[in-house]
Each structure stands twice: as structure tokens, then as C-alpha cells.
Amino acid sequence: TQLLEQSPQFLSIQEGENLTVYCNSSSVFSSLQWYRQEPGEGPVLLVTVVTGGEVKKLKRLTFQFGDARKDSSLHITAAQPGDTGLYLCAGPQMDSSYKLIFGSGTRLLVRP
Amino acid sequence: GAVVSQHPSWVICKSGTSVKIECRSLDFQATTMFWYRQFPKQSLMLMATSNEGSKATYEQGVEKDKFLINHASLTLSTLTVTSAHPEDSSFYICSALFYEQYFGPGTRLTVT
């Protein structure tokens, strides 16, 4: 069974601080995606990483895919209150690349 | 582009009644749509895959007679929660597949 575990589950930080969220699995994934979800809304895709060791940057957000394609991280530099939300990693299921498995989620609160 | 809408955004119904949730792809056609369920402070759990013109496929543990899915056109899938009970109260999110999954804004269902 493919599982994606995220840590930490909850993070409360002050504006301006840096943070890293982790997404780990014992399974190899062909790709991993990161989403951000705000309360009462659907998830919004931030990035897709495909190649082992790949690093992608989206403004203050840096995403990395592990060399073995079993893990990924999201690093936010100088967090802002607008970064508050639920961060979810997701990867395609082994038996169907169209179906996604979502990680357990990391709830981030950035205090002004 | 690639916008997905859901209707209603929230609904309250009495125990024992049925409620229908619509998922529409507004600017593209989708032969495949997905229905997810999300409990408070938890991640998304895939319930079923909706295929246009054919029967939906349900994930293990999801009652197909309780959660009826109809994908009658390339832009519309509906989820009907039949004989709803308080434990069916949840946030239901759909997505439409167009190279990647595009998520709707979700529907909050409260069963009293």
C-alpha cells in the first residue's frame, strides 16, 4: 500500500521565519505534487516534481524531490501570513497514474 | 483556464434525505472526474472515479449504493448522497482530469 506521510502535522510560526515541510514514503513515485488548500476551498496545485533530485522554485517556495523519488520537501523562506493553509503532497497511484494519493497534510499558520 | 465548479457550495439536509452535488468543468471537457471526501483537519480521501458514459469505480470501503455517481456529459458529474446520516457530514471535493487534475472549490455537507 502506498502511503505518503507528512511532517510536521501542524506548524505555527512568526512572519519572516523559514520552514520546511516533509513528505515521505517507502514507495517510489514517478512524480509528486504539492498543493495548498485554504479553508473551505479545493486544493490548488503549486508544483509537480518528476526527476529524482529535482529542485523547483516558486518565488519564496523551494521544492525538492528526493534522489530515490520516495520523498519530497517544501521550504518556505520568510513566511508571510498569506502562506497560511494546508499543504498537501500527492502522488500517482501505482495501479492508475490518473488517481492520486494524498499525504496526511501539514497545517501551517503564519502569525503576523 | 481549466476551471471546475461545484454546486452547491454548502448544503444542510435532514437525516434520511438525499442530496445531490454537481461538479462541472467550465472550459474543458473531462471524460474522467474524481470525487474526494475530506473530514475536518484531515487530508483528501478518494471515494470514486467518475467516467463519462460508463459506471463509476469506487474505492475500497465506499458504498456505491449510498454514494451514487452519474457522469452523463463531458462537463458534468453528480454525486448523490442517499439516505444521508450525520456521519456523512463532510467536505466533498471533485476534480476533473485534463492532463492533470483540476479541483473544484468543494461542497460542505451537514446532515442534521
Structure description:
The complex is a heterodimer of chains A (112) and B (112). In chain A, strand 9 and strand 10 (100-102) form a beta hairpin. In chain A, the strands form 2 sheets. In chain A, strands 2, 4, 5, 9, 10 and 11 form a 6-stranded mixed β-sheet that branches. Chain A starts with a strand and ends with a strand. In chain A, 0% of the residues lie in helices and 52% in strands. With 112 residues, chain A is an all-beta fold. Chain A has strands at residues 5-7, 10-14, 19-24, 32-37, 44-49, 55-58, 61-65, 71-76, 85-92, 100-102, 106-111. By secondary structure, chain B is mostly beta strands. Helix content of chain B is 0%, strand content 56%. In chain B, the strands form 2 sheets. In chain B, strands 2, 4, 5, 6, 9, 10 and 11 form a 7-stranded mixed β-sheet that branches. In chain B, strands 1-3-8-7 form a 4-stranded antiparallel β-sheet, with no helix packed on it. Chain B contains no helices and 11 strands. The radius of gyration of chain B is 13 Å and the shape is globular. The interface between A and B is medium-sized, with 17 and 22 residues.
Give the helix/strand layout:
The complex is a heterodimer of chains A (112) and B (112).
Chain A: E1 5-7, E2 10-14, E3 19-24, E4 32-37, E5 44-49, E6 55-58, E7 61-65, E8 71-76, E9 85-92, E10 100-102, E11 106-111
Parallel strand pairs in A: 2-11
Antiparallel strand pairs in A: 1-3, 3-8, 4-5, 4-9, 6-7, 7-8, 9-10, 9-11
Chain B: E1 4-7, E2 10-13, E3 19-25, E4 32-38, E5 44-51, E6 57-58, E7 67-73, E8 76-81, E9 90-98, E10 100-103, E11 107-111
Parallel strand pairs in B: 2-11
Antiparallel strand pairs in B: 1-3, 3-8, 4-5, 4-9, 5-6, 7-8, 9-10, 9-11
